[in-house]
Amino acid sequence: MADYVKYLDPKTLNKISHLDLKARLIVEGYVAGLHKSPFHGFSVEFAEHREYVPGDDIKHIDWKVFGKSDRYYIKQYEEETNLVAYIALDTSESMSYASESVSKAEYASYVAASLIFLILQQQDAVGLALFDHEVRSFLPPASHSAHMKNLIQEIANAKPREKEKTDVGTTLHRLADRLTKRGLIVLVSDLLDKPENILRGLRHLRHKRHDVIVFHVLDHDEVTFPFERMTQFEGLEGLPNLIANPRALRKAYLGAFEEYTQELRRGCLANNVDYVLLDTSTTLDVALSSYLATRAGTRKGTRR
Fold first, then answer.
1. Which of 118, 106, 112, 93 is nearest to 20 (CA)?
2. pLDDT at position 3, please?
3. CA torsion sign, 171 to 177 to 181 to 183?
4. Distance between first and last Cα of the chain
5. Which of 92, 124, 136, 159 has the fewest CB atoms within 10 Å around its CB?
6. Rg (CA), the chain
7. Max CA-CA distance within the chain?
8. Which among 126, 152, 136 has a CA at the least distance from the CA of 90?
9. DSSP 148
């Protein structure tokens, strides 16, 4: 059995546990994803009943149900229900790359596990999709405490598949078609796919009114290209090995890398998708707590 506990770094969890991870986009006049909508009854759909508890607004009591059962029940609307989140984790071969002790796959797993912990701590529901060029595993969302062990073990047991390519765009389209309940989609991937394909998939999710966060996980070598001597670069995801002089390639590589990340960043911004570049050399607690604090502040700033 995999030791799932290693994916829950106490230092990371301690820094992020006090921060809300809620959908922050204002949609149709209300804040989506919050447990309590600031616009009760405005452009919301009835979801379910729940039993009345002291402190609830009596205007939401369903008197018809009271007449039949002699018990008080509250009409609960879609935007008052708990957040439903889905973590989409890339397990393609390129995620196995590691210039130091932690591979992209491991770093991405720590990100996913920390967010799962946080979301469940908020008593929200979270599910998991593992993918490369297709969805390999899907665990539907739940909010009970035992669900965390199932999710973390699924992550711990997942290994990057040899020669399996990343197809982020297709995966996002399939998730958009599959997920009927609007929620928060968290994509954790090295995004080694054509930017236009990725952005089309993200637009599909936004069209379905999902809130989306993209964690772009890259190895420090991929960000800085520090190589000096003649080097054999190992081909992943079916690509051949390549012997090259890094000094002759550095300027072109860094230019192409900047263009690629800027295209992703601009495309995400245009579609109200949060884009976060994570370098595996950055301490995870610093990276996550910084982003979540910024997100929480942005969400408060967008309330009206």
1. 118
2. 55
3. positive
4. 49
5. 159
6. 21
7. 82
8. 136
9. H
Cα distance between residue 107 and residue 278, in whole Å: 9
- Helix 284-302 and helix 104-121: axis angle, to 10°? 50
Q: pTM of the full predicted structure? A: 0.73
Contacts of 290 (CB under 8 A, 6+ apart): none
How many CB atoms sit inside 10 A of residue 225's CB? 15
Contact between 201 and 171 under an 8 Å Cβ cutoff? The reply is: yes
The amino acid that residue 76 corresponds to is: Q
Name the range with the highest mean pLDDT among 103-117, 123-137, 261-275.
261-275
Q: Kindly list the structural domains of the chain, giving each domain's residue range(s) and its CATH number in brackets, ordered by start.
A: 4-16+82-299 (3.40.50.410), 36-80 (no CATH)
Task: Of 185-194, 195-204, 233-242, give the lowest mean pLDDT range.
Answer: 233-242
CB 73 within 8 A of CB 63: no
Q: How far apart are CA 225 and CA 257, in angstroms?
A: 10
The residue whose two tokens read 């002089």 is 245
195-207 and 168-178 helices cross at what angle (nearest 10)? 10
pLDDT exceeds 50 at position 125: yes
Pairing mode, if any, of strands 125-131 and 84-90? parallel
d(Cα 118, Cα 24) in Å, to the nearest integer?
Answer: 16
The answer to whether the CB of 208 falls within 8 A of the CB of 235 is no
Please compute, for residue 285, the number of CA atoms within 13 A of its CA located in the half-sphere on the CB side.
11
Q: Which amino acid is at 65?
A: V
